[in-house]
Amino acid sequence: MSTTVQTIHDEAPAEASRVHYLNASYGVKSWLLTTDHKRIALLYLVSITLMFFVGGAFAVLMRLHLVEPQGALVEPDTYNKLFTLHGILMIFFFLIPSIPATLGNFLVPMMVGARDLAFPKLNLLSWYVYMVGAILALYSTVAGGVDTGWTFYPPYSSTYSHTQVLPVAVGVFVMGFSSILTGLNFVVTIHKMRAPGLTWFRFPLFLWAIYATSIIMILGTPVVAITIFLLGLERILHVGIFDPTIGGDPVLFQHMFWFYSHPAVYIMVLPGMGVMSELITCFSRKRIFGYGFVAFSSMAIAVISFLVWGHHMFVTGQSIYAGLIFSVLSFLVAIPSAIKVFNWMATIYKGSISYQAPMLYALGFIGLFTMGGLTGLFLASLATDVHLNGTYFIVAHFHYIMVGGTVMAYLGGIHFWWPKITGRMYPDGWARFAALVIFVGFNLTFFPQFMLGYLGMPRRYAVYPAEFQVLNVMSSAGASILGVGYLIPLIYLAWSMRYGPPAGPNPWRAKGLEWETPSPPPTENFEEIPVVTTDAYDYANVGVTRG
Amino acid sequence: MAAHPVHPPGFAHQFEDMEQQREAGSLGMWVFLVTEIMFFGGMFASYTVYRALHLPAFETGSRLLNVRLGALNTAVLIASSLTMALAIHAAQVGKRKSTIIFYLLLTMLLGATFLGVKFTFEWHQDWMEGLIPGLNWAYSGPYALQVQMFFCFYFFMTGLHALHMVVGIGILTVLVVMSARGRFNDQYYAPLEITGLYWHFVDIVWIYLFPLLYLIGGRYALGGH
Predict the structure, then answer these.
(1) End-to-end CA distance of chain A
(2) Do the beta carbons of residue A326 and residue A342 sit within 8 Å?
(3) Alpha-carbon distances of A507 from A10, A419, A426, A483, A527, rounded to whole Å
(4) Which of A42, A224, A545, B136, by CA, is between 20 and 30 Å from A508?
(5) Is residue A4 part of a domain?
């Protein structure tokens, strides 16, 4: 994309003198009361990184425990709490806000060419709401934990569990509103705040992905909120809603829960797909192949995602005909997902590819997401699901999507836009090394789990038969490597904030409005609101660079 | 793009002009109302499922409600939607601020009347009859467990609706203060309009709740309390 207003300077402007969003004001108050979308993105970045490492620590403890068939580390009760808290913190407090609340918050106004989101105060409120939820979840962790599994299935969660279900449930309920507010803000911003000339089909595909994600956030989250609300009331008042012994129906809870929580998978992965389209085009120096297909596949995923929740309930006793329809619809989701993967591949084909760190993450995403997606088809088939349901096969499948997919894209995106966010470069050698460590560690952790699940090892057990030990030890070894892999970027990215060389406005020579303003951007993003005259990914007009 | 030498009152810096700001605010409220529909929708769906499963019990429960007070409240709420619309109209055609404030206060009064009837008559009566699940539950007729579930949903749904009314009255209070300071005129009345959307939505939720809880099934034209 280019603008009629020329704001690019090839050499970085004098760093000390220029006022940007980071040095416009100082002090704790200037951050906690900010309404600047870029600062709020950083507030989110710090919070979700904290939650990621707490949730990750629980995972490492779990994997250490499972080195021995009889369990090496903790009591079975504690183990139940570990996998529950790992799931809750990672899904609700890391993955769901991850890309939308950090990169989305930072980039959406810049990509549409606006000074801020439509409702900056609401944006800040959403961070505070998130923090209230996160603090409740962390409180319950130190107050004794919770052992229901992240799915909160009643009647266990509503009547029989003697752990801190209520604070966690309230935390998830509250956090949901932060997600709703973020989605609302994005939808209004994308509809109403676009720069002159920025038509829908000139959008960078990240915007399409964020738009589709926001729609899921808006339509899905209120339903899980009301479900958790009803669950909490049943637990407090002991009245029958979901508990069958006092007149309720536990299957209704599962329907309502998955009506949100399956689309929530796409809240987690769609923004990652948006990041992918940005990375692949930039580091292949090519226009995206099949722009319209990639854009509409995001919308198709958002729509179909609301029609497939029953595939979580094939063995819950729903009618066989409902199961059949849910199975067919679940297969349909594979089509838009595959369209994206094929279009990325076609974009890379004959591109001038450079293997800088963001591109390594993007390539990792393609491989891992494809494996996660294809194994999803096993689970969408009625007959194979009966065998694989509740085993480590499912655990491996959704980790390939969420960690292999979303976290890879998230890290790729963080590395790609880090120069824009901080104005400084990180050491590329370390970044490539970390990407490689993460890729190896990830596969070593989760590939053995496919095999364990296929052989019949159930998930959520603190002990297992001795013949599964070799694969479990492999998985635990992989988890240790993965843990180290995640720590490396934390260190060099923190280092780069102070010591990294200045990045200049556009270190990747990438296209897009966000690259046409200095790094870090001024508080109002653009000196003048840009005018867009070309399509996205106009790489034909940029010289070839190699990393 | 032109700079903004003089900002009109109520203008926020992130927008290009007043028109963009008004459209964004309006779309924002519509999107919020969509989330509200899904929020209430989850409860309506659960209610419908359980009503289908336990029809006789839910009909029994429905007969225990006071349909006359429910009907009175329906009329009160519809009247409040009218006064809300009149307040917006008054601003649009540039009436004096005392007219806007008059209609806003009338809307608040009608809203408070609704809540008053709900809390001091209906819920109080339910308390006296031992129909509050979890707190004061004394019903021992047929299908006691499922009738209790009906009352759970009755209190969740009307309670959530009442909470929205309280929030609405709070927002109206702010609007009265803003009107008194002369913030609204025939050029700038977006907050009134947006609050109106919310108020009408809360009204419509009740329009669905009233037949769903009080009217359908087992109650006939001349029956009831």
Answers:
(1) 22
(2) no
(3) 10, 7, 11, 29, 20
(4) A42
(5) no
* Chain B partners within 8 Å of A184 (Cβ): 28, 31-32, 35
To the nearest whole Å, the CA of B99 is away from the closest chain A CA by 30
Tokens found for residue A185: 């803000």
Domain count, chain A: 1
Angle in degrees, CA A166, A169, A175, rounded to 5: 140
User: How large is the C-alpha radius of gyration of chain B?
Assistant: 21
Query: What torsion do the CA atoms of B40, B41, B43, B44 make, to the nearest 10 degrees?
Result: 110
- pTM recorded for the entire structure: 0.93
User: What are phi and psi for residue B125, nearest 5 degrees?
Assistant: -60, -40
- Euclidean distance between CA atoms B56 and B76, whole angstroms: 31
Please check whether residue B16 touches A, CB under 8 A: yes
Kindly write down the DSSP assignment for every residue of B107-164, as one continuous string.
HHHHHHHHHHIIIIIIIHHHHHTTEETTTEE---STTHHHHHHHHHHHHHHHHHHHHH
Strand partners, A107: none
Q: How far apart are the first and last CA of chain B?
A: 66
Residue A350 has a CB neighbour count (10 Å cut-off) of 9
B contacts of A532 (beta carbons < 8 Å): none
SS (H, E, C) A373-424: HHHHHHHHCHHHHHHHCCEHHHHHHHHHHHHHHHHHHHHHHHHHHHHHHHCE
d(CA A22, CA A414): 17
A505 cis-preceded (ω within 30 degrees of 0): no
Closest to A140 (Cα-Cα) out of A63, A58, A17: A58
Q: Is B2 on the interface with A (CB under 8 A)?
A: no
Instruction: Tell me the CATH number at A367.
Output: 1.20.210.10
Preceding peptide of A520 cis, ω within 30°: yes
Tens of pLDDT, residue by residue, chain A (547 residues): 444 344 444 444 445 578 999 999 999 999 999 999 999 999 999 999 999 999 999 999 999 999 999 999 999 999 999 999 999 999 999 999 999 999 999 999 999 999 999 999 999 999 999 999 999 999 999 999 999 999 999 988 988 889 999 999 999 999 999 999 999 999 999 999 999 999 999 999 999 999 999 999 999 999 999 999 999 999 998 888 999 888 889 999 999 999 999 999 999 999 999 999 999 999 999 999 999 999 999 999 999 999 999 999 999 888 899 999 999 999 999 999 999 999 999 999 999 999 999 999 999 999 999 999 999 999 999 999 999 999 999 999 999 999 999 999 999 999 999 999 999 999 999 999 999 999 999 999 999 999 999 999 999 999 999 999 999 999 999 999 999 999 999 999 999 999 999 999 999 999 999 999 999 999 999 988 999 999 999 887 654 444 4
Among A188, A229, A246, the residue with its CB nearest the CB of B28 is: A188
Q: Does B35 touch chain A (CB under 8 A)?
A: yes
Here the ipTM equals 0.91
Please give the domain boundaries of chain B with CATH numbers for all domains: 21-215 (1.20.120.80)
Q: Which of A114, A185, A225 sits opposite B39 (nearest CB)?
A: A225
